[in-house]
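Task card 7
Instruction: Convert sequence to structure tokens.
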Amino acid sequence: MGITARNWREYPQRYRMEAGKCKKCGKLCFPPRLVCPVCKGREFETVKLSDAGVVKTYTVIHTAPSGFEDQAPYAVGLVELKEGVTTMMQIADCEPEELSIGMAVKIEFRRVQKDGHQGILMYGYKAVPERS
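Output:
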């Protein structure tokens, strides 16, 4: 299995948390878009997103899909980053009963999955509770 052209194009937002900021109206889009959903502008500047966020909502997965069985139960949630962008990701390093809406989290780049017997590693972002 090779890496497709689409994967290469998506690397910046997948691996560097880069968003596109419309030069016309300032709308921040993550993942970046070719056309602004607000003003239809087509010029964007690249913005590096912060690693600070807040859990807006979440669910706990008890019956995991193929490839994630060893992680169940695990949480997936919508996390709003400091810049106002909301994205979905796994919430790691805590028990489901510790989760709460409004919980402060830090975004970390981690291994998400190992693809079958070929051993292809997939990386992405996970939210981890901020501990004081």
